[in-house]
């Protein structure tokens, strides 16, 4: 396990080969926020294991704690108590710099509101993710970005700005960006929340395809019909896992 005093470059990349050892383990995770109205416990003793190559949907009502869980899983937020283990790395013990380094190598994130930079073209948005992590050689970045756009069916939009694309197209770009550094884990927070039913189904199928490509996919969604297409559904109510099937 890594500790906060270790250097960022010692952070291990996660193994991609499915096996008996969990890819991610949460042990008795509690997350408490302090608000003007007092403390609020968003997660209440979460125990969860995710295996390599799983497709997991996390469902629950607004305020149930599902997005907080996703932030804990990715190291965007830290647990108040409990452990978050990814492979051999104790994420909850890493410094902010180490966590960012680990996340850049191992996690691709798809946001509900796309988060594309408006002044960069589509292909430049995807290349930027590679520029930050520097895991892809410079000469390979644009060809890889174009290849990813081709895989999701919008390579013809590569030189356009995000505002020129539909919501569904922008979400496809966000997925391509999340895949830019070929991470073993792909997480998506309400990726279909702003899309019509047909487009949402298409995006969900693209996520399913990533599982077929060997990635571990974790999706937070309020849409139980879409969640039912995942291999596993984790239901959260008031910060607790009440169902895991």
Write the CATH fold name.
Answer: Rossmann fold
CATH superfamily: P-loop containing nucleotide triphosphate hydrolases
Shape: globular
Number of strands: 10
Uncertain residue segments? 1-10
Order of helices and strands: EEEHEEHEHHHEHEHEE
Average pLDDT value? 89
User: Briefly, what CATH class?
Assistant: Alpha Beta
Side-by-side strand order of the widest sheet: 6-7-8-3-9-10
Main sheet properties: 6 strands, mixed
Q: How large is the radius of gyration?
A: 18 Å
Indicate the percent of residues in helices.
Answer: 25-40%
The overall number of domains is 1
- Termini separation: 30 Å
Taken as a percent bin, the fraction of beta residues is: 25-35%
Under the CATH scheme, which architecture would be assigned? Answer: 3-Layer(aba) Sandwich
Structural class: alpha/beta
The total of helices stands at 7
Structure description:
This protein has one domain (8-244): Rossmann fold (3-Layer(aba) Sandwich). It is 32% helix and 26% strand. The protein is built from 7 helices and 10 strands. Strands 6-7-8-3-9-10 form a 6-stranded mixed sheet, sandwiched between helices. A hairpin with a 2-residue loop joins strand 9 and strand 10. Helix 3 packs across helix 4 and helix 5 (167-178) packs parallel to helix 6. The longest helix has 16 residues, at 197-212.
